[in-house]
Amino acid sequence: MRSLLVITNAEAGTSDEERLSEALAVLREGASVEVAKTSNPGELDGVLHRAGGRTVVVAGGDGSIHAVVTALHKRHELAGSTLALLPMGTGNDFARGNDIPLEIEDAARLVLDGEARPVDLLVDETGNIVVNNVHVGVGAQASRKGAKWKTRLGSVGVGKVNLGKLGYPIGAALSAFHPPSWRLRVEVDGEVVNDVDRPVLMVAIGNGGNVGGGTELNPDADPEDGRLDVMISRAVKPLAKVGYVAHLSRGEHDQRDDVVTLRGRSVKVSGEEFWLSADGEISGPERSRSWRLEPSAYSMILPPA
Q1: What pTM was computed for the model?
Q2: What integer is the mean pLDDT of 180-203?
Q3: Does residue 285 have a cis peptide bond before it, meaning omega lies within 30 degrees of 0?
């Protein structure tokens, strides 16, 4: 019988506890299951210390899987690890981009019946990792504003709909009215693809394509293809900004003449101070940051190819 270590947030609310119970009932039909609740990095590290060769099942959202992958990477144990995901977050962008069901019982069945496949990872020069997507410019500004709305709306729900999911769209809409532009140099695989003389609205680097609860920022990004996807928006004029946001909401922004899409193995962004949003975690301001792709960094249980 397979052995699973399910890691969940110790501070989860009642509704999350109920959903987790539904998932555990499915998992226990076909596996031996241990549940560990953690509330800080120290507790998480202690739990992973005793994971052994078990599949680590993350019960949470994008922040949770980012935390687990970060901890395993720091322990130098990521390469030999197999992970699975029970999506219980607000945005669940990693799940969306990898066709992991958002219905918790279906996700649990995937843990039992899915296929362990190697997936890529982004690592920056400081050793921080990105599981899904990192973006700078107006996207990070939207995330900063959206985080406030996510907090305000997170406890408000209608049926199964959590209004906290509206956080990123609200942030993007607020940012669309008065977003600044940034003078940034962007290098892909050592080649300058945008210099400081061409202001940008945002730069997105995708291992996965979705951010903010389903916005397809890098629509063609695939964490299994050994490449990272780069999107540069030069829509800095007022009408262009509005048009860009409208196209972004429909997933058609990459068709615009003022949007550049590229693929590579490494990216460096430098220039004016910028904030960045990596897997939804906001940090900055920075003047320079670079990322490299680490192909097939770990295994993830996904739907059969």
Answers
A1: 0.86
A2: 95
A3: yes
CA–CA dist 263, 230 (Å, integer): 6
Find the largest Cα–Cα distance for the chain.
Answer: 60
pLDDT for the residue numbered 169? 46
SS3 content of the chain, % helix, strand, coil (to 5): 30, 40, 30
Phi, psi of 242 (to 5 degrees): -65, -45
Q: What's the pLDDT score for residue 251? A: 84
Beta-carbon contacts of residue 12 (< 8 Å; ≥ 6 apart): 20, 88
Higher-pLDDT residue of 26 and 247 is 26
Paired strand residues for 229: 206, 263
Check residue 147 and give its pLDDT. Answer: 54
CA–CA separation, 43 and 26 (whole Å):
26
Kindly report, residue by residue over 136-160, the tens digit of the pLDDT.
988 787 666 655 544 444 444 444 4
* Element (DSSP H or E) covering residue 142: helix 138-153
Give the Cα separation of 231 and 258 in Å (integer).
11
63 vs 66: CA distance, rounded Å: 5
Dihedral sign for Cα atoms in the order 10, 12, 15, 16: negative
Amino acid (one-letter) located at 80: G
